[in-house]
Automatic annotation (TrEMBL):
GO MF terms, alphabetically ordered: class I DNA-(apurinic or apyrimidinic site) endonuclease activity; damaged DNA binding; oxidized pyrimidine nucleobase lesion DNA N-glycosylase activity; zinc ion binding
Span list, region Disordered: 93-128
Source species: Kocuria rhizophila
Domain FPG-type: 282-333
Top-level taxon of the source organism: Bacteria
PANTHER family: ENDONUCLEASE 8 (PTHR42697)
Gene3D superfamilies: 1.10.8.50, MutM-like, N-terminal
Protein name: DNA-(apurinic or apyrimidinic site) lyase
Gene Ontology biological process terms, A to Z: base-excision repair
Amino acid sequence: MPEGDSVYRQCKMLREALEGAVIESSDFRVPALATSDVAGRTVVAVVPRGKHILIRLSAAPDAADLKSGAEPLTLHSHLMMDGTWRVFDRQQDDAAARPGRRRSRPGASPYRPRGQARRGGSVRSAAEARTRISADVAIGQGSHTIRAILRTKDVEAVGFDVKDVRLVPTRLEEPELVGYLGPDILGPDWDLEKALERLSAQPDRAIGTALMDQRNLAGIGNVYRVETLFMTRTNPWARVDSLPEGKLREIVTLAHKLLHLNKDRSMRSTVGQAPQGRPLFWAYGKDGQPCRRCGTQLKRGEIDDALLTVDPTPSRTAVQHLRTIAWCPRCQAAT
């Protein structure tokens, strides 16, 4: 699942492409928004909030022509496991359609132009030169995965496989979209003490589960959970109230540092050196390999992340949602 740093980079890309521009047309391919239209509105801001993307739009210039109403709106989306926003240069697309130019075969997706190159599984094309593709965000597989399109004079911003696409009045962002989230670990209003207070409020929870609960602090995902707990020698299943004094603060402070170090990188590294063609981790994805600290074989484990999704009021009947983690039975032994 894309984590807080992935969302930060997606918002930076969208902000550079859209902020201050007028939407010429929009296309929402989710049932609830099928008849919605935000044409004529200006993109005021693009804001990450934990793992949520908030595209804020101005008031409508002519409310009579817009079913979405006159007041400022926020377009909400969540990347979940495999969503991604992409930005395409409309001038290049228009040039490709000029008379005399070779056209794509009938039925071909306009978002996968001819001549594209594959690098390490990522799809790149000339129309994507505007931004680098983050290595930790999945690539949309074609037009059938599109859920939202915003077109300006110069670009098309396309949301592939994004989830929870909603339009709400901007004044209702907090109560309806993100108000339940804890302090944003990459946000300007990050509050360490509040995050520690929320984590400590449920002392019987496993620290590995508590860190992923976005109601405690927003932005940590499985990668940073695994790496932070390994680097602080913390057992993922240890109860919050069993941690030595100061350990909880050490864990959260390190997670905050790691996300900030990686927020402007297309590939992550937690090992103290810049990634060179691939992400660099201590433990994430390395179960079965020797621990880089003590040489013990890293184990593969599962931890239940049920009730930790985007729904602020999850069902009591939610099923288990087991996530795979790697951990060192020696460095992270239970105490």
